[in-house]
Every structure is written in structure tokens, then in C-alpha cells.
Amino acid sequence: xxxxxxxxxxxxxxxxxxxxxxxxxxxxxxxxxxxxxxxxxxxxxxxxxxxxxxxxxxxxxxxxxxxxxxxxxxxxxxxxxxxxxxxxxxxxxxxxxxxxxxxxxxxxxxxxxxxxxxxxxxxxxxxxxxxxxxxxxxxxxxxxxxxxxxxxxxxxxxxxxxxxxxxxxxxxxxxxxxxxxxxxxxxxxxxxxxxxxxxxxxxxxxxxxxxxxxxxxxxxxxxxxxxxxxxxxxxxxxxxxxxxxxxxxxxxxxxxxxxxxxxxxxxxxxxxxxxxxxxxxxxxxxxxxxxxxxxxxxxxxxxxxxxxxxxxxxxxxxxxxxxxxxxxxxxxxxxxxxxxxxxxxxxxxxxxxxxxxxxxxxxxxxxxxxxxxxxxxxxxxxxxxxxxxxxxxxxxxxxxxxxxxxxxxxxxxxxxxxxxxxxxxxxxxxxxxxxxxxxxxxxxx
Length: 445
Ligand SMILES: C=CC1=C(C)c2cc3[nH]c(cc4nc(cc5[nH]c(cc1n2)c(C)c5CCC(=O)O)C(CCC(=O)O)=C4C)c(C)c3C=C
Ligand SMILES: [Fe+2]
Fold this sequence. Notes:
By secondary structure, the chain is α+β, with helices and mostly antiparallel strands. Helices cover 25% and strands 18% of the residues. One of its GO terms (cellular component) is cytosol.
């Protein structure tokens, strides 16, 4: 078999551009915005005055401006779509959405043809769902027909859904004859200090990172991908993330569950993406050029212990203030940290603080793109909060993460309050050029 066909109901290709598409505004939205801004601006312009909405009404006799309704705002958010086709997969440079479903899979398939079929079906279905469309009929006309799409995202829209596919090192073992497609030096992460990994939350032949501003849209996507491949893949581990814990360009910095701003000094510029995130020729595999490597670490926080730690200690552990997020050598969040600054005879930013150990200035220029999410699994077996950070990072070489984690695993003061319990590394292929192409196509030529 050479060219598997697309999933049912496949629609025409999306725009190849990689920028965020603003949704077309519904007619009601356009109308109310014109009323809202056009009305008062016209009055202010004519009289050279800045007038409130009420004054504008009094002078012109126009109707009071109508702010967008809740429904209009929901429509606008739900209509947001991220491009699926392009040079890079979505969900990497995409400004982080609000929710995550991360799932790793092991293949139960035993032949290359079965794997090919999974990848072709998934690629077509991903194109559908990121455009806000179902993967097939939700309500088939024949009474005894089983719905193709499970239906829980019907009418919700895409809410900025991105689906990012990764291949684990185990995919390239002898099972499918893909050894020659394995990128140079691509291997499971080495054991590192400070880990208590649970084998049930480690590795996987494939992974999907689903991110959306609506949790149900992200969940629906992974559920339907798993379902359509259920004879060939088995879900290995999954993490539901909420409250993005990283910032992209033009986003405010969110907070992690320790209450600190997380993602202040993240990668945002094209130059940094080119230098630190996107794979070039060095992987020795054309299918990885424009791709990246995803490291996933499920990190449990000892929250009850953390919550009893005095603020001065919490701040010196991160090297930043809690409310503002400023480096301890400065005053404002985006002040550049000065690792040589001294306060009271000691470094202002302690050398064993998380930031000092992780900063590119102290690591030969190494940077990674962080794209993590907070998670909670409720309570553990003895009633403690079971929550933490689903740390996700993208880099052009897994060694970038490994070198940082080796150092931090040994001496980061944060280690007293965290445990790495889940782990995986995945080769994330470049984006697909157009409808009809599918991830891994090169493996089956
Ligand atoms: C090996 C890589 C990293 C792991 C694992 C990690 C875990 C982790 N981080 C926080 C919270 C914060 N991290 C911050 C900065 C920061 N962290 C890393 C890397 C890892 N973090 C880097 C490269 C950086 C940037 C350092 C710099 O250049 O200044 C911060 C500070 C604010 C910020 O810049 O984002 C916080 C807060 C937690 C809670 C955590 C594990 C649970
Ligand atoms: Fe960090």
C-alpha cells in the first residue's frame, strides 16, 4: 500500500501560513463593535473632546452603545483557528492556549502498513479538527450506524486547537523496519538525579500534544484520534493540563501552582526559534528539517510543604520576587537579571536558585522553549494534593534539556519541593505542506 486515503469527510486544505488567524467576526459582532467605537469616536472627533459613552448619547441623540454580548464573545473565541499546514507543526511557536491534553501511545500494530494507516488517518483527522470540523458523521442517517465522530465538540469550534504529533525513539526499533530513519543520537532520556519516574508514565512510541482554549475541544481531539486507531495503538499515559504555565510573544506571563510567574524569559523571537528550536540538517533526516524535539516531564509538586515555606525562602529558591516576578537583582518582571549583583555581601540572585542554574547566561547560551501547563490529579492515596507542572519543552536537540536538567537535578534548591514522575522525549516532524500529505510519509516510500 502506498497512499492511504484520508479520513471520512475530509475538507479542502487550510491556508499554509503559520500565523494565528483571527476569526471572521459574525455580523452581529461587527455591528456592535461599530456602534461601540464608531459612535463615540465620531463625537469626540467633532468636538475635539474625549467624551464618555453617556455624553455621546446626550449630544448626538444616538442609541447607547451596545457592548458585545457573552454569546458574541464566545463565538469570537470559538472561531479562532490555527493553520494546520505549514513549515512547522502548530503547538510549538503558537502562543500557548489555555488547556492541554498530552497523551503518549504505544503501538500494538505489528506491520509497517498498519502504522502507515494510523499516520495517514491521524494526519487527515488532525486537519479536520484543527479547522473546527468533526472527523466524520456525528449523527448518521441510518439508525444502526455507529457515529464516526463522538460528538462532544459539535458546534464548539476549534478554540485555537493545535495538534502536535511526536515519534518516540522506540518507534525506530526493528518492529517496523524504520531503523534507518532514526535521527542521529535520538534515544530515550538518560537517568538523571532527582527523578522518581513511574514506568507507567514514561516513554511511548507516539505522542500527541493537544492544546486549545476549550478543554473539551482538546479532549475530543485526542479521544477521537485514539478511537480511530484503537486496533493499532494503546494509550500509555495522559496528562490534562489547565492554566498555561508559560508565555508566548505578546502574552502576559501566567503563574504556576507555586504562585510564581512562569515563562517570563521564554523564547519568542524568530532568531531564537531558528537557533534553539527548529531542527536543521544536523538530525541527518530530511523529515526532521523544520521539526523539533519535545521533552515531556510530569513534575509533581509537594504543595503542602511549599505552602509553609516563608516568602523570603520561596523567592530565593526561584531567584525572583513572587508578586512582580522581578529578578532579585532588579525591580520589574522584565528587568534583565544581573547574576553579579551583590546584596548584603551575598549574590542578589543565589547561585543555587532555579533561575541562576537555568539561565542561558550561565549555560553557554543554551535556551529551550518552555510550553508547560499546570495539572492536578486530585488527591493522592494519603490525601495530599496531587498536582504540579506538566513541563513541556521544545528544542532542536534533546541535549539542550539534558544538560540543563543534569545540572538542576543535582543542585537546584527547587528540588526539595518537586519530583519528576513522568518522562518522554519525542521527535516532532516538520509541518505538512498540504492536504494529501501525512506525517511519516517518507518512511513508506
Ligand atoms: C530542565 C529544564 C527545566 C525544568 C525541568 C524546569 C522546571 C520548573 N520550572 C519552574 C518554574 C520556573 N522556571 C523558571 C525559569 C526557567 N526554568 C527553566 C528550565 C526548567 N524549569 C529555564 C530555562 C528558565 C529560564 C531561566 C532564565 O533564563 O531566566 C521560572 C522563572 C521565570 C521564567 O523565566 O520563566 C520559574 C518560576 C517550576 C515550578 C518547575 C518544576 C515544577
Ligand atoms: Fe523552570
